[in-house]
Every structure is written in C-alpha cells, then in structure tokens.
Design brief:
This protein is of the alpha/beta class. It has eleven helices and eight strands. It has a single domain, classed as Rossmann fold, CATH 3.40.50. Strands 3-4-2-5-1-6-7-8 form an eight-stranded mixed beta sheet, sandwiched between helices. A hairpin with a 5-residue loop joins strand 3 and strand 4. Helix 3 crosses helix 4. The longest helix is centred in the first third of the chain and has 16 residues. It is globular. It binds adenosine-5'-diphosphate and magnesium ion. The site of adenosine-5'-diphosphate (ADP) has 14 residues, from helix 4.
C-alpha cells in the first residue's frame, strides 16, 4: 500500500473514510470535556489490525483542525510511522538511550501543525525502555510541546509494551479488525488494558464491510465502559 493511500485524510479529504477519521477526531476532542485528554494511545489485540494507519490519519485530522499535534511511534517492535511519513528514523529510542533532547529529533511533516517522533532503531528491550522513568519524563515533556500527542503502540496481547504505556496515557483507543479479530481476543485485550489502569475511551472497528465489498470504513463508538473503574 502506498504512502498516499495510507494518509487518506490528506490525500482524499472528501472520501467517506476521511470523514470517518474526522468523526474520530471529534470524538477525541469531545472526550476532553470530562478531563484533560492530552495523550492518546492506539493499540489493538493483535498485529495488523490498523493501529498505525488509524494513528497516522487521526493525527493528520487533528492537525487539520488547527491543533498542535505530535505523533509518536512507540511500537518499538514493528515501527512504521517513519515509512508512512517518509522520514529518517531517529527518534524515541535514541532519546531513551542517548542523551538527546526531544526537540532535536521531532520532525516536521508536510502537514501544518503535525510533528512526528519516529521510533528510532529497534532496541533489544522495548518493554523495559517503555516502562522507564525516562519514558515518563519524555511523555511529560511532550505535553509541554503540543495540544494532543497521539501514540502508535504495539498490540496488547503477546507483549506487555502496550499495557506498560497505557497507564501513562490520558486515554486509550482499541483498534479492532472487524474482519479477523476473535471476540475473546478483543475481550482479553480490553481486560489487559483495564488491569493496566488504561482509560479506554472506546473502540474503533476497522475493516468493516459496507455496501461495496471493496470499501473499507472506520466506525467509532466511545465510552462503552471507560470511566467505570
Ligand atoms: N481498513 C483497512 N482497509 C484496508 N487496509 C487496511 C485498513 N487498515 C489498515 N490497512 C492496511 O493493513 C496493513 C496493516 O495496518 P497497520 O495500520 O500497519 O496495522 P497495525 O499497526 O495494527 O499493525 C497496512 O498495510 C495498512 O495499510
Ligand atoms: Mg503498527
């Protein structure tokens, strides 16, 4: 899939898919009313469900509304944001292990108001890095640099990375591939996130078939459980 196809909000803003991302943007902005929602993480049960595509397009849609946005690739196992945005990959892990300032590795994108912090080189110990005090420091520093920070995270089942970051986020969105995810896996992912103290804002059902069997569509419903903890 080409870069253009992946950033559909920018390349085809009138499409129903772009409209769906803008609905998601509105939901995220709306979620802010109940509290200070500045950091949002997207995760899923397993790999390939659409986390990175959804994170990238949601970040673009948020930036298009005039807010100052940073997209962070914290999938330190299978990072792709540098590819989607065509950027060099020095980023988060460089800051975590070397003495480099966040500002030095934040990269502008071709979208106004959107900057990206790519993953950096893949490390041997992702969970440990993501759970470190330094990571907490980086998140808090990022908050001083943008209105909303979108984190593209690893999947929730199989590795602990997403659970580790979830507790440090204001909100968590679960992206589920409607065509492949098994209900018990979705349930398991939700349980793991709740156990990790993640504030689940809602679920995005990706790859929901509508009308035309080749169409893909993103549907969002929020608050299905969240603040009940
Ligand atoms: N709704 C969709 N319809 C068709 N292809 C999609 C859809 N969502 C994602 N993809 C494609 O599926 C692949 C995996 O998506 P990605 O966002 O990288 O998933 P993840 O980050 O969860 O591993 C990518 O090639 C992406 O372009
Ligand atoms: Mg991904």
């Amino acid at each position: 899939m080409t870069q253009k196809r992946q950033l559909i909000v920018q390349e085809d803003p009138k499409s129903p898919i772009a409209e769906a991302y803008r609905t998601l943007r509105t939901n995220i902005q709306f979620a802010k009313i109940d509290g200070n929602l500045q950091t949002v993480m997207l995760t899923s049960a397993g790999p390939g469900e659409g986390k990175s595509t959804t994170s990238a397009n949601t970040a673009v849609a948020l930036a298009q509304s005039g807010k100052n946005i940073i997209l962070v690739d914290c999938d330190l196992r299978k990072p792709v944001q540098h590819k989607i945005f065509g950027k060099r990959n020095r980023g988060l892990t460089n800051i975590l292990v070397e003495d480099i300032a966040v500002e030095d590795l934040l990269q502008d994108t071709e979208i106004d108001n959107l900057r990206i912090l790519t993953s950096g080189p893949i490390p041997p110990n992702p969970s440990e890095l993501l759970g470190s005090a330094k990571m907490l420091e980086i998140i808090s520093h990022l908050k001083s640099l943008a209105d909303i920070i979108v984190f593209d995270a690893p999947p929730t089942i199989a590795v602990t990375d997403a659970s580790v970051i979830a507790s440090k986020m204001d909100g968590v969105i679960l992206v589920l591939d409607a065509s492949t995810v098994r209900p018990e896996m979705a349930q398991k992912a939700k349980e793991l996130l709740v156990k990790a103290n993640g504030n689940i804002l809602g679920v995005i059902l990706n790859r929901v078939e509508i009308e035309d069997e080749h169409a893909y569509y993103y549907y969002y419903y929020g608050n299905e459980h969240s603040r009940s903890k």
